[in-house]
Amino acid sequence: MKIIDKLTTLKISTNELIYASHYYPQDMSHIMQKIDKQLPVPKLFESSWFNTKQINQTNKHLAVQWQAIHKSINAGNFSETDLLLRPFSASLNQLVKQYQILATKKMHLVHLAELISFFLIMLIGITLYLYSQKQIVLPIKQLVKNVKLIKERQFDLEFPQSKNEIGILSQGIEDTSNELHHLISTMQTQVSEQTIALEKAHQTIEFLYSISQQLSTVKLTSPILYNALNALAKQANLEKLCIELNNGTFINSELGCAGIDENMLRIAIIINGKPYGFLNYVLIKGSQEQHGLIESFTGLVARALYQEEYSLQEQKILLMEERGIIARELHDSIAQSLSFLKIQCTLLHRHVNNSAQQEAQQTIGNIEEAVSDAYIQLRSLLSTFRLSVTESNFKEAMVTMIKTLQKQTNALICIRQFETHFYTDASQHIHLLQIVREAIINAIKHAQCERIEVSCIITDQHKVWISVIDDGLGIIDNSEKNNHYGLSIMKQRADELGATLSFNSLSKGTEVKLIFPYKDSILNQGSENV
């Protein structure tokens, strides 16, 4: 564009020179000098994009023409100069046109380059957009979505994998997510384990509480321990289970005794340093964590045995106190009176013998016999009341009384069947002992028997049967005759117990049977035969 402007200026100067050649020849030298400065240098114009051959030729021809014009002006030949200026002006116009054509081509090339550049920029922009969408925007959106899902505790996610800063960030978030997932899974596992442990502990506490209530609210008997053992076997998942007490008693669960199993384990039943026996058990494989439950159960059994022993001891003490009071009263009143009457009968008998009154002697003999018999019965009764504490259990007291009565007869007195766990209160204890004692004494005196059997059982109808059977001649109910009041007193005692007393003649001998209802709480404890 600069060359075209320069050529345009040169063209104007040429026109001035032509005008001066006609009207002001004296100015031509000055204009010629100005044209020398404006005239382009006759050098080659080269371009790798365009054909500049014609331009170079026109430029050289223009330079040659100007030299001719320059010489003509210096020579003062103005007419020739005018002739030379016209082709010079034409050549100059042609050069301007050639440069304009070249400039137009250059502008077209520039426009094409601009268009190509625009398309390249658009392509680059689209490429950058797609790249940013794929490598930046979408990964960031995925990361934001993953962060929200992680917040909602969803960890099974896919993270974008890139080798740029976003990839590093994605890897960091993925590692954090995996760590959180691991921590939450670990915590959930621990919470689940602790929950299961708490549930098991709760079940264990409920079980132990139930067993504690069961062992402490009723008298401790074999059926009670049997039911407790079955509950423990089910709760602790045991294969075999039993209790071995120091008195030789074995109480087995429904699973059987563990004493003969080679895998048997045992825990001592002990409290306050006093042993009561052992709990023998066999664990099913995989149930090793139940040792604590079994030990707690053993402690409850030990405490129940201790409380039962303590309660029985208290009952024995109260019974002994009551018996002691009755024995003291009998000894201080009736025994002394009978002793005095016996002495008086002896003195009277001597006096009557001296006067030889036969009828009076017979009457005195009858009185003396009755007093002696009453005195013997009273001494027997006192010996029964004065049982030691260890004999205050009904069966033990019965055995002791039988041993005492056995000394008075050659007939064998034995226990045929008796409830092992038969308990009575103080009033029942005395009435039952006296009824059985009177029945045995009657058999000794009147039956002429060789064997007397005593039984005490509990029937399915929730009643207690106590029977005294002899194999003698039989007994006659003469409670209203001959001043014998034993049978009448037996019936009175039976009435106070709310019991039924009967005298049954057998093919050989007699059966005295006492039947009375038993308390449900005691009846449900069960019994054993001995």
Record the SSE blueprint.
Layout: H1 2-23, H2 28-38, H3 53-75, H4 78-151, H5 165-217, H6 222-235, E1 238-245, E2 250-252, E3 265-271, E4 274-283, H7 291-355, H8 358-385, H9 394-406, E5 412-418, H10 426-447, E6 451-458, E7 463-470, H11 486-497, E8 500-505, E9 510-517, H12 520-523
Parallel strand pairs: 5-6
Antiparallel strand pairs: 1-2, 1-4, 3-4, 6-7, 7-9, 8-9
The CATH architecture assignment of the largest domain turns out to be 2-Layer Sandwich
CATH superfamily of the largest domain: Histidine kinase-like ATPase, C-terminal domain
- Main beta-sheet strand count, sense and barrel state: 5 strands, mixed
Instruction: Work out the helicity level.
Output: 55-70%
In words, what does this structure look like?
By secondary structure, the chain is an alpha+beta fold. The chain has helices at about 1-25, 30-40, 55-75, 80-150, 165-215, 220-235, 290-355, 360-385, 395-405, 425-445, 485-495, 520-525, and strands at about 240-245, 250, 265-270, 275-285, 410-420, 450-460, 465-470, 500-505, 510-515. It folds into 3 domains: about 1-120, Up-down Bundle (Four Helix Bundle (Hemerythrin (Met), subunit A)); about 195-310, 2-Layer Sandwich (Beta-Lactamase); about 395-530, Heat Shock Protein 90 (2-Layer Sandwich). The strands form 2 sheets. The protein has a 5-stranded mixed sheet. It has a 4-stranded antiparallel sheet with strand order 2-1-4-3, covered by helices on one side. Helix 10 links the parallel strand 5 and strand 6 (about 450-460). Helix 5 (about 165-215) runs parallel beside helix 7 (about 290-355). The longest helix is centred in the N-terminal third of the chain and has 74 residues, at about 80-150. The chain is rod-shaped. Residues about 385-390, about 480-485 and about 520-530 have low confidence and may be disordered.
